[in-house]
Amino acid sequence: MMILQTDEQTIGDLGIFGKHDSRSIYDIYNRTHTRGGESLLEEMFRNPLSDKAEINRRSNIIENFARLNIPFPYNGSLFDVVEKYLLHGAENHSNGSQSVLGEKEIQNGVAGVIELIRLTSGFVKNSALGEIDAYATEYDSITHLVEDPAFSPVLRLPQKEKPSYAAITAFDALFRNSERHKLEALLRHIYLLDVYMSVAQTAAERKFVFPRALDKGQCLLTLEGVYYPGLQQPVGNNISIDSASNVIFLTGANMAGKSTFLRALSTALYVAHMGFPVAATAMSFSVMDGLYTTINLPDNLGIGASHFYAEVTRVKKMATALSSGKSYFILFDELFRGTNVKDAHEATVAVMKGFATKANSIFIISSHIVEAGESLQQQKNVSFLYMPTRMNGHTPTYTYKLERGITDDRHGMVIIRNEGILDILKKN
């Protein structure tokens, strides 16, 4: 399976797992009922896909789950019992020791596995799972597992009849020894079901859209109504990128919404590569080999590195990746903010011209240095967008909507005067 290249800087920038005081993107999608499903969902977030067919297949499965509104048929507490029970079997299998489970725990474990097999058998027979073409491989695997002849004694048991002591002993040997690997495989399928249903529920409740993945190397990205899903009252934006405009220069005031838009776009593209629905009204995208953002780049004071040096190191990492010839989505918010305006101007122009030679990748650079944008006007594949500031008398207001061009806003001193800073400084 081909995995999208990314790094911890990007995962942190986008709030994929968040911090203790904020809700993460992972939290938004996590409605899982099992620890195994929760762990698998985290694994998917850490390993987005880089394969068009696999992305579209997963997206199709989840979209059908959302359409069919199939509920998770298990009680989460059942898995606590079964997992603990099988875990002891795994330990015994590896070291040859005798079971450390008590008689009551064995009885509960056997009963839990019996219920799991019965529930799964009924679920695959009576639900609409078999109608989902993209899910056919997983559906067949689950069906074959629960219909395995080894488990036929389980399905023949009368529903309300408790197994005898001899039957429990026989089932215990079956479940924890000879057929344990099949039960573990069944659990993995159920965890995946848990993830699909969890994400489908998120899509239905939040009205997220299912993107369409396109071939690599085309530099196509179209988004309508994209917004950052962690916001309470988001403003959606539209953007369309192709090979004739694969480098975007974004300007605007500090509070105009640049960083929020950049997070919204990058998060949508990241999540789309997982085959998950995104916070937008429409989306299609060329599959990329890697996705890297630089929004909140920390100084590395531990080695005496300045912010500017951290930026240079980050740009070097991107240049090295691009030299492979693969397709990347690369984003810098306020590139070279750690140096003086003249150096930042020259460096921004030079780096963006270098990026512009990479025809199979997409680049978005935001900057306060509008003069850098003016120096890039002759570059054919560079497009210019900005977030406007509107003045309501002496008060700046923000639309948070993208517009074409380079901003000519100069409202920094207005804000400083409005805050009364100069008056405060005049006081003795």
TrEMBL record:
Which SMART domains is this protein grouped with? Answer: MUTSac (SM00534)
Q: Does the keyword Ribosomal protein apply?
A: no
The record's section on InterPro entries has: DNA_mismatch_repair_MutS_C, DNA_mismatch_repair_MutS_core, DNA_mismatch_repair_MutS_sf, MutS, P-loop_NTPase
Per the database record, which ranges form the DNA mismatch repair proteins mutS family domain?
A: 245-426
For this UniProt entry, the molecular function terms from Gene Ontology, in alphabetical order, are: ATP binding; ATP-dependent DNA damage sensor activity; mismatched DNA binding
A single Gene Ontology biological process assigned to it is:
mismatch repair
PANTHER family associated with the record: DNA MISMATCH REPAIR PROTEIN, DNA MISMATCH REPAIR PROTEIN MUTS FAMILY MEMBER
The protein in question is named: DNA mismatch repair proteins mutS family domain-containing protein
Organism equals Chitinophaga cymbidii
